Amino acid sequence: MSSTLQADPANPPCEPLSGVNPGTFAYTTIKDRLPVIVTKIVDDLYRTYNALPDESKEKKTEAKGIISEIGELRYELQRDRELRDIVDDGDADFSVWNDCLHTYFDGKTWFSATWLFAECYLYRRIREIFNLSKLWKNYDPFTRQKESTFMASRTAVIELTKRAESLFQVSENLLEGTFHELVLISLWGNQTDLSLFVNLQAEDIEKLQKANEDAEKYVLANALEPLWNKVKTLKDARIDFVLDNAGFELFGDLILADWLIHKKYASKIHFHCKADPWFVSDTTEMDFMWTIQTCINGFAESQDERLKTLAQRWADYIQSGIWELNSHKFWTSPYAFYHIETQAPDLYDTLSKSSLVIFKGDLNYRKLVYDCAWPSVTPFKTAIGPLATSTGFPALCALRTNKSDVIVGLKEGQAEELDGVASDWMVSGQYAVIQFSEGNQ
Ligand code: F6P
Ligand code: MG
């Protein structure tokens, strides 16, 4: 194990996860899951194309070009071609990508680069195709999937809204239990991400969202207590959410954020969204605002007043600056979070003003612990390297359902025991972790 501080994208602290080994989750993702994601973009474009009026000739012609470029990208991926430079497509981060590519992955392919780099690079390549167009620059090929998944979650959304109402009225002695419940809701919302469950149907979504009666039983490392011990000391503080997926996950995150404001632990919440379409279901600022507006408008067949009131309050928070949205390009860069301070000093500075940063989801977890083969008993604070020790960095917690074969912070023998219970416990989304570092402020 090399020193964590010397880690670089090609040499994380332990052996990097990558597609070189058949049978690993990384390999299967690159071989099977990513091509499906790319194909679905083509399907989405056809649907948008077919809905265009005849007079949109130029837009239609461009769409055909984009469809064929997406097809070429899939071909490169499936033939495991060498990763090429990102073209100067007018997006300032193209040179960040190329620097990283040349410095660490020169001559590497989709399967031989690290999984983290290759998977992030795919989404940057997709963006490049749209950026180079004239009339499709801001098109998000995942919007349709994100929106329809949220609409399919309506039962769970309405249920949660009802539950939230009572959780906002609890007495002093129930605050800790309520906090635990809300964190667990936010955590399990992370199960329904569209890059893992590429063929998710409405019934599956509902099943996943109901499966949490045993919410804590499947949390393999559970830092709810230290997390609460931190939160209960806060008064009118700033708390940050590094968001993951739009849809039901975001809805649960917003309820937790609202409660933190309502109980005055925080007077300001910063939400970190993605600047570009990312890992299919990740939240962009557009998705964030759409979700709130959709709740204000009410779902088609159920005009739930409670939901409207809740969402209107969220809109007011945004209007008054109590909630603030950001989408720094670092979150869609190829870099693991060890490098926030060097790659994005402005982001590091602003995070340092927070009292607690909540990282949602699997990809954020992979980036926190550098997506490598840590022994599962490695302490979380060791695995997050500089984020646990750097001067000024605040307390942080990871709320993540396990969807990739990296995990830290387990007890001796725990991983072996789980192997005997469910061979896919690391990747199925059925297990989770809540992990915490008090930071160094
Ligand atoms: O394709 C599967 C996958 O890419 C995971 O490996 C990845 O970490 C996950 O999807 C995204 O999950 P999340 O939305 O929780 O970050
Ligand atoms: Mg995601």
TrEMBL record:
Domain of life of the source: Eukaryota
InterPro entries the UniProt entry points to: ARMT-1-like_metal-bd_sf (IPR036075), ARMT1 (IPR039763), ARMT1-like_metal-bd (IPR002791)
All residue ranges annotated as the Damage-control phosphatase ARMT1-like metal-binding domain in the record: 29-417
Name the UniProt record assigns to this protein: Sugar phosphate phosphatase
Transmembrane residue ranges: none
Role this protein plays: Metal-dependent phosphatase that shows phosphatase activity against several substrates, including fructose-1-phosphate and fructose-6-phosphate. Its preference for fructose-1-phosphate, a strong glycating agent that causes DNA damage rather than a canonical yeast metabolite, suggests a damage-control function in hexose phosphate metabolism.
Originating organism: Basidiobolus ranarum
Alphabetized Gene3D superfamilies for the sequence: 1.20.930.60, Uncharacterised protein PF01937, DUF89, domain 3
Required co-factors: Mn(2+); Ni(2+)
Entry similarity comment: Belongs to the damage-control phosphatase family. Sugar phosphate phosphatase III subfamily.
Source taxonomy: Eukaryota, Fungi, Fungi incertae sedis, Zoopagomycota, Entomophthoromycotina
SUPFAM superfamilies: AF1104-like (SSF111321)
Gene giving rise to this polypeptide: HRT2
Alphabetic keyword roster: Hydrolase, Manganese, Metal-binding
EC number: 3.1.3.-
Keyword Nucleotide-binding: no
One Pfam family linked to the record: ARMT1-like_dom
Domain commentary: Subfamily III proteins have a conserved RTxK motif about 40-50 residues from the C-terminus; the threonine may be replaced by serine or cysteine.
